[in-house]
Amino acid sequence: MFPVRYATSLFICILLTTDYNYLLALRVEWCKARARAHRWQEECLLLLEEMRRVSATFSWQCEKWTKVARQLEATALSSSQTVPALAQADVMTQAVKKEGKIAYAHRQAAIRNEMLNYCKLRWEKYNNMLLTLEGFDAKVMVECHSMQ
């Protein structure tokens, strides 16, 4: 944003100038500045969407691993062995493996939840900044903002 004095002196300079090449160059510079502003605005909106998607992905992964752990906990242990001693050893081996798989699933869910909370904590202040560019709505094109 230009300081008011600069913008006013630029406007007066334009009014007093009748040189066609100068006005043409000024228009070109204005178009370049407008394109840069649009690119910056779009980049802010894309970054905001990317942040939302990363959070949604971590949340989904956390739910997925929690569901896997619940399914494993609900699974019953059984053995196809006919000899009782072998059947008992088979069930004990399955129990140990099941316990390890459940612990792994809970750990993965906890990791994803920690990553989600970390991102939310770090990005909390940026959400508002990306939605309001210099006090204006970022979803409205730059030239549509009224200067007050």
Observed structural traits:
two-stranded antiparallel sheet, mainly alpha, 3 helices, 3% strand, 148 residues, 2 strands, single chain, disordered N terminus, rod-shaped, 78% helix
Portion of residues in helices? Answer: over 70%
Distance between the termini: 13 Å
Q: Outline the low-pLDDT stretches.
A: 1-7
CA-based shape: rod-shaped
| SSE sequence, one letter per element | HHHEE
**Number of continuous helical runs:** 3
- Main β-sheet: number of strands, strand sense, barrel status? 2 strands, antiparallel
CA radius of gyration is 31 Å
Strand order of the largest sheet: 1-2
Give the overall average pLDDT: 83
Q: Strand content of the residues, in percent?
A: under 5%
Q: From the helix content, strand content and strand pairing, which structural class follows?
A: mainly alpha
Assembly context of the chains: single chain
Number of strands: 2
Domain unit count: 1
Give your account of this protein's structure:
It is a single chain. The protein has one domain (20-144). The chain contains 3 helices and 2 strands; from the N terminus they run H-H-H-E-E. Residues 1-7 have low confidence and may be disordered. Helix content is 78%, strand content 3%. The radius of gyration is 31 Å and the shape is rod-shaped. It has a two-stranded antiparallel ribbon. It has helices at 4-16, 20-74, 84-131, and strands at residues 132-133, 136-137.
